[in-house]
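User: As part of a screening pipeline, I want to sanity-check one entry by hand. Below is the sequence and the SMILES for flavin-adenine dinucleotide. Please return the complex as structure tokens so I can compare it with the automated output.
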Amino acid sequence: MSDEKIRVLILGGGFGGLYAALQFEKRRDSRFDVTVVNRENFFLFTPMLHEIAASDLDLTNIVNPVRKMLRHVSFFCGDVDKIDVEGKRVTVSHGFDRHSHELEYDHLVLGLGSVTNFFNLPGVAERALTMKSLGDAIQLRNRLIAHLEEADTECARAERPPLLTFVVAGGGFAGVETIASINDFLRDALPFYPNLKEEMLRLVLVHPGEFILPELGEKLGRYADKKLRERGVEIHPKCKVTAMQPNEVELTTGERITSATLVWTAGVSPNPIVALVPCLKERGRIKVNRYLQVEGLDGLWALGDCALVPDPATGGYCPPTAQHASREGKILAHNIIASIDGKAKKPFNFKTLGLLAAIGRRTGVARILGVNFSGFLAWFLWRGIYWSKLPRTEKKLRVAIDWALDVFFSKDFVQYLDQRALAHSQTETGAAPWNREQLSHPEKVDKRIAA
Ligand SMILES: Cc1cc2nc3c(=O)[nH]c(=O)nc-3n(C[C@H](O)[C@H](O)[C@H](O)COP(=O)(O)OP(=O)(O)OC[C@H]3O[C@@H](n4cnc5c(N)ncnc54)[C@H](O)[C@@H]3O)c2cc1C
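Assistant: Here is the complex for your manual check:
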């Protein structure tokens, strides 16, 4: 064998890509030169994302810097722009000027996940918030707090209905956990806003199916429905959002809900970058064999939400979940090494262990190994199981401390602002730069000072 290392390029540092990289990290096989490319410099633990939006956890406690997790695997923080499977190279861009680099590979792993799909509904892409990234959760948290602050003022009295109505589209895990947690957050924060009353708050969950959380079955779905309604959440089953206008969400029933906030969790599609790969796909997801290999393309592998992985138990495909993606990562790394060593590859063979959802106020619903749980026990299982899966002891400790403090203190509603602190340089005119117009258009202040 030549001295040249085998270059493995992993696109995506999510549950699929990162767990594949962790296998190379563990093995420290000097024959491989492994690089992970990811847009963010951290790994996001999505199952706890709603806890960030609802201020149960501190903003960075569910993310881990990739560089702390991978000490023997290289990391490139940037955007994947192009994939050339013929030339075996990938174009990535990064930096403030977004300049490009070409990374060559012998084995390419596609783990780019999925993106939100707004189905071209009028106004939705422009106006709705999403719940996929850490930024999304922080933005939603900030939006809730900003609306409480604004609605509490006397001058915003007339705008209270759109400010205090929050619509979530999608009754799957992400939608239900989001509405449950923001409902608790808003109701817990209300006593601190003297002009606001519980009856002014309106939280609406819009779901196309007959009952929410369909993956957990009717019994648990109806239980979650009942619990949420008892806590003041309105649920609109058999209904979809059709459009969003400023301060108005339109539904298939013809109803128009006066609201300035729509959280869209009602659709995903595979990352559009994978469309650049000339291979077999179904609804945009890359078809792989049981070894996670893309057939017909040498050295190409795919996993996670952007791949269609055969499920021998059902004859269909594996669901797009973190528990599948992380296990696919392990098998995929093993199979790359086995293909180099000329050894037998392992087929991906994993049966969903369980599904769990937190539905607020220390209650949950879960189905684990075919057994249903609900109420406090299910919530406790949710916390215990996901906490055990959260990578790195440091973050586990931080989350445990946050949860413990939560028992004694009410939720924190400090707004995280990304504005620069007000500054003052003496200008020629001597004008003070803090009039109202300049505060809302800081770029104008910068230009005047520069001039
Ligand atoms: C709110 C929410 C809650 C969830 N809860 C659960 C749960 O409780 N249990 C469960 O099993 N599953 C859950 N899931 C699903 C789970 O997160 C996904 O199935 C899983 O993350 C898929 O892993 P992946 O590696 O395919 O994609 P991801 O984990 O999404 O990783 C893809 C990575 O690729 C990066 N990327 C994308 N495009 C580019 C590009 N062009 N350039 C560079 N980098 C790029 C992204 O930044 C990301 O880091 C949840 C998902 C969400 C959104």
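Points to compare against the pipeline: Residues 12-17, 37-40, 46-47, 49, 79-80, 111-113, 131-132, 173-174, 271, 273, 304-306, 320-323, 325 surround flavin-adenine dinucleotide (CB under 6 Å). Residues 6-39+78-116+269-341 form a domain with the FAD/NAD(P)-binding domain fold (CATH 3.50.50.60).
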